[in-house]
Amino acid sequence: MTHTHTLADPRIEAALGRMFERAEQDEVTAARVSAQLPGGFAPLTPQEQADAVAEVYMPISARGGELLYNLVRAVRPATVVEFGMSFGISTLYLAAAVRDNGTGRVITTELSKDKIAATRRTFTETGLDDLITMLEGDARDTLRGLDDPADFVLLDGWKELCLPVLRLLEPRLRPGTLVVADDVGLSSLRPYLDYVRDPANGYQSVTFPVEDGMEISCRL
């Protein structure tokens, strides 16, 4: 499969190309790991899940990344918050948009120490490291210390945690803030989708048909 990107920086292009190629190889690995676990991932804690797939790329699609880039360029957020960095493919799109806007920062979260170490090198080689703050640990804990408003949010960690993380961030969401969640077809994301699709909870939500589907919700 050939991936195309609209980002002009050759360092970012090279990193994304390499990472997407590795991600395609890892699809088989991820399926094998899941099959070896009794009952799949469901019985595991978030940390145990992260440890089980510490070497597996779990990326958004290239088209999804380009959508994120465009949204961040348009919104011009001061603070982008990402739940679930993995090896940082989505983070590169977010940080590239922040850089091209000339303002802002990205705060991202990840449970796996191995992924954080590998991704730190990638961020340095792409020249985006000064725009990215990585928080190691459970996002339900690390994001409690967030002082500034979250002006743009990407939820792409373990799907059963997307709603708790959103609820944690809600006091820091101003009207007009965009919240994006990936993989709308996964059953584990259903409680989150039910929540943001109910106008009573303060969101206007729409599903964007890119790859596995992205839910874009505007805080009212």
Main attributes of the structure:
single chain; 17% strand; globular; seven-stranded mixed sheet; alpha/beta; 7 strands; 220 residues
Describe the structure.
With 220 residues, the chain is α/β, with parallel strands linked by helices. The chain is built from eight helices and seven strands, in the order αααβαβαβαβαβαββ. The chain has helices at 10-36, 46-52, 62-75, 89-101, 113-125, 139-142, 162-169, 190-196, and strands at 79-83, 105-110, 132-136, 152-155, 178-182, 203-208, 214-219. The chain has a seven-stranded mixed sheet with strand order 3-2-1-4-5-7-6, sandwiched between helices. Helix 5 (113-125) links the parallel strand 2 and strand 3 (132-136). Helix 3 (62-75) packs parallel to helix 4. It is globular and about 45 Å long. It starts with 9 loop residues before the first helix and ends with a strand.
